[in-house]
Design a protein that fits this description.
The complex is a heterodimer of chains A (61) and B (828).
Chain A (H helix, E strand, L loop, with lengths): L7 H15 L5 H8 L9 H16 L1
Chain B lengths: L1 E10 L2 E7 L4 E5 L6 H13 L15 H5 L10 E8 L2 E8 L7 E2 L8 H11 L4 E3 H9 L5 H9 L2 H47 L8 H14 L34 H35 L1 H23 L13 H14 L1 H38 L5 H26 L13 H8 L2 H20 L1 H69 L10 E6 L2 E7 L5 E2 L1 H4 L2 H20 L5 E5 L7 H18 L1 E6 L2 H8 L6 E9 L3 E8 L2 H10 L3 H22 L14 H17 L11 H27 L13 H18 L9 E3 L2 E4 L2 E5 L1
Parallel strand pairs in B: 3-12, 3-13, 7-11, 11-12
Antiparallel strand pairs in B: 1-2, 1-4, 4-5, 5-6, 8-9, 9-10, 13-14, 15-16, 16-17
Helix pairs in contact in B: 4-5, 4-17, 6-7, 6-15, 7-15, 8-11, 8-13, 8-14, 9-10, 9-11, 11-12, 12-14, 15-17, 18-19, 20-21, 21-22, 21-23, 21-24, 22-23, 23-24
Chain lengths: 61, 828
Amino acid sequence: MSDGLLNVHEEVKETFRDRIEDNDDFSDSLTSSIIELSDEEMTDSEKIQSVVQEALDNADS
Amino acid sequence: MRIHKLHIRNFRGIRDFQTELRRSGALFYGPNGAGKSSVLQSIEFLLTGGVRDLEGTGTGRQDPEKHIRHRGVEPDESWVEATFLEGDEEITIKRTVEDSDQLECVSDHYELPPKLQTQRTAMQLSQNRLSRDEVLEFVTTSPGSRGEALNEILRVQNTEDKRKAFAKAVRDQEDKVESLREDLKKQRDDFYDALGDSVPEATDEHVTVDADSDALDVINTLRDEYGIDQVSELDEKEFTADITEPATYAKSHPLDRPDLRQEFESIEEWFDWEGVEAVESHQKLRDRIEEFEEDEDLRQDVRAQNLLTQGEELLPEFEPDCPLCLHTWDEATDLRSRIQERRDRASRAEELREEIEDLKDQQLSLIKDALSAVETLIRVFDDEDLEAYDQPVERWKTELDSFESELSKYRKQLEGGDVLEIPYSSLSDGELTDKLLPDSFEETADGMREQWEKEQEESEGMSSYRVLAVAQDRFSRYSEIKSDVETAQDVLSTLETINSEFRTARQRHYDRNLEEIQERFEEIYSALHSDEEVENFSANLQSTKQGVKFRTSFRDEDTHRPNLVYSEGHQDSMGLALFLAMCEVVGGDAIEFLLLDDVVTSIDAAHRSAIANLLGNEIGEDFQLVMTTHDKVWARRLRTTKYIQNTVHFADCTFNAGVHHSEDIANPWGMIDHYLEGNDITAAAAWGRKTAEWFCSKGCERFDAELPYGDRESLGLQDYFDGVVDELEDLLDRGNVDGETKFGEPEFQNKREIVDDLRRLKDEHIWGLNENIHYNEEFDASYSPDDLREDIEVFKELYRLLHCPDCNTWRKDGREGIYCRCGTVWKT
């Protein structure tokens, strides 16, 4: 965060990532897949679905 | 860290433009297309490497760089350079279009100071830039897009896009789970059907399978026929485990085809109702065609329809020229409306035409299944003993073929638009029924079915195995989908949690900020509309699951969507007030300057005045304002405020010359006094020179003085000074005063002496200003404040001669001499 400027997008994203990391129900791989979503990917519902699907598939295999 | 100097070269319409901004900013005014917005875009480009207005949707995916640089100029010749100032710290940065990803520190800095970095981040987030387009979008957008326009003003669109994407991911996954569940149910029903349909034949028992326990019973009954152990649960799936496939099972007999059941059912349906419906539909079709035959008006309407369609197609292509003779046709619009009226009158013909199409389609659809079934039966029974059924089957098929061919031909004619050319069948209902629903074939079909069923019974030994095999196959498919449903459900639960976490994170920040923005918005908006009934004005800005909700009061206790109760002008000022409130809340002390690009559009003069007061006397204290406007009156009003003193007039913009601009200084001597009082000789001398250049150029313009031929951009103080003083000398030499002139004899002579002195003192005084401006060299000013004050006083005398201190207007040569609003100053 730069010098007192309130960057709502970054703050919401950071808080969101913290909450995902604190969620014990999620596996490590699922957690890292979600928090590594880029800004652009977070606005793409299909990408979000596929990332979660893939992470769960990998956890099962 | 505020903008101190700006130098723009070959950027958009600007060829070369330099300006020095005051601490409180600058106002660029002029007509549309003069290049004002380009100045603001240049600052955006300098800090971010892009220009938002040239990116995104509606730009044809063209490379923005192509439109950033001045046309015909190489990318390395197009650049923006600015010096930012914070106390004593000064940093100059530059960005060229050629290396638009690279921000170059021209001054001796390894990296951007944090405060400048903050301005850059704010610019990337558009938190310090508002354009007219955004305000217009907020005011005029369609109801379905108001939320997005509000998000844009509050600069939360990106977060809202994420909220929508997470929510949509959940909804899509819910749809996927639902779809899989429906598929699962179908597969389960198919599995039960496989068991239920076959069991009566295989076991002579009537069993209804509607639960797994029933299915297990049937499976074990079938397994019992083979003397094999029972299975204990469906999940074992291996229903045929330990069962040896019967050796007799071979597709040796042509009728050993269980799938023929479907064909016989199709034939049965045709004779039960489909055929009857086809005949009835055919009768309706005859009636419709007959209606056409008998009604000449309808026939004319149909012909007109074709012509009207052609006319409608031709009009846009040829308008305003006649498509036949290509002469200009003044009444094309009238013709269009007359065509529409004619089309309306001919609507019954169009309805009939569509009805005929539908009836033909319906008949074709009905006949398709029957025809397919009889073809299959002919093929299968041909191997067995078709001769026994030959005549009725072939005859019926021929009739069906003929009918289908007739319908297809008509359909084709309809597609070609020839509804009037369709002959209607001469067959009566009874004749058609005999052809399409012959008793002889129905009896034959029954016989064929009996033979097929007999053949099926003969292979009864196969039934148990076949039922189990089909059931196992279907159960296997069902199990796969069941697994897919469970996986999809896991994904859905995870997505719901992720969505919930994002909503919580978003809500946490929104709750805090939106309340502050709402309070500040109420203050700003109430201040802008203090003359109206806004005493109890209140707003509600809150975050919901569906987005940010914005409501305002309107003369009652309720809250309303602003667009439903407020005028465009009021909404316009709401958009600006929301943006300014957002800047103050999210920017705090961090945002130093705001770029406002012609943001006042639908607002009346009184409220523009209120906005000028707010910006120039209040907001300008906290932010350096860099603004544009095309409204000269509003620009004048802004210049009367405390913080908007520096205005630049963009007169026009031509391709070769670029922008033609001139700088207006609202309080020319105030700045010099300010710096002299602060003992800042360098700044005072710089402002002295700038001021002298400004009013001398203005004087040349007003007195039509001769200037050296050449590029207007290269003229300087020396040229303007010489031009205006030469002209004044001449005008004073030729001049005289009398009782009607503003100047009396003593004052006139005094002015002549001043101009003579100016000529003599010119070099000394211009040099005095130059010498004390540092430019790029490090040395102290040689003048004391009093020295410089003396020089400035000389220029001030010249200014007073050019600009009337009484009526505050520029003097001009014309009428009977030199005049201003006060009257004739002296005669020539």
